[in-house]
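--- STAGE predict ---
source: upstream dedup step, 1 unique chain passed
mode: sequence only
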Amino acid sequence: MFVDEIKLSVQSGAGGSGSVSFKKTSSKSSPSGGSGGQGGSVIITVNDEFNDLSHIISNSSLKAENGTDGNKNFQNGKKGKDLIIEVPKGTKIKVENEVYADLHENKSSFIVLEGSKAGRGNYDLISKRVPNPQFCEHGEKRNKIEIKLTYSIYSDLVIVGLPNAGKSTLITKLTNSKAQIADYEFTTTSPNLGILNNSDLKLKICDLPGLIKGASDGVGMGERILRHIRNTKLIVYLLDPLNQSYSLEDQVNLLEKEIIEYDQNFSEIPTIKVVNKLDKSEISIIDSINISAQTGLNIEMLIQNIVEIFQSDKRRLYGDFQKITLQKDDLIINQDHGKYICTGRFVESIIGLSGNNDEVNNEIFYRYENSYLPNKLEELGVVDGDTIMLGNLEFEYKK
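--- STAGE serialize ---
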């Protein structure tokens, strides 16, 4: 089954926690606790051996590996293994319908989530301020995000037309494809693909299900069909002279309108107008080639025309595009009758400590006071006497 769209829930690996230990040297002891290992990242990478997204199991547990904890005697934890999700070239990565990456080059990669940070052991926490720390940091928890992958077929040429224009018949004549000659839903049957006959160029051809009026606005399977034009180099408009509803000119206008309204950049893709069913009608229009896909009449002429077009360098519209890695600072402050409840990953980085209670509390308040959190609370209107909650830690605010 051909799959061109899939939603996934992915999680980075949690960071390993640091440890507290001390190594005795003569009459004194020094910190020797190892740090944890960073969690694995979630990475999308292109493998051009894949032709759709059907190899990805959407309901599986898509998690990168956790980092391991540090140990005594300077033993650091191991980094968690990355979660690698392989996709075909021509795959977009979306979060909340915003495109974060458009991958085209083989082995091109996009880091969806960096592995969660590891906690430091007391050896790595040594500083002038705290020369003999009796505490360590917890590793960050997993980070989770919902992503959507959409794939657009990589082809050299696409055949588009209204329903029953003869697209499937034409591709069987142009290529070695055994196309299904029937109406079908694009989501339940693979698109017809093949390699152009009688040519050394090995051009990949795709015929798409019939377009109808309103396709660019989502009528029928319009968006799912039009998506697959974006990664082609040439469009063949296959026209039906026997269509009772649209003249040949009307068919061209309808196809151009739907295609360009879906993506104005598609107007840069060169086109060929091909009038089918010459065995039944000799109606033609300017700058078109008349053929009969059924009998094979003028198919060689069409193939020669296609080859001549591709003898000049034809480029695709789109190339690799990537935004910054999807990593969130995550500070959430909720107000409730003089109480400011602070949660999120940023807060965890302040309070995620264990060890000697007094030293842990001192370190938490030092980190709190030297962060941007007090200023953020003041912006929200905090006053002396209000209650501040950092996770499970509660204290009274004093400026």
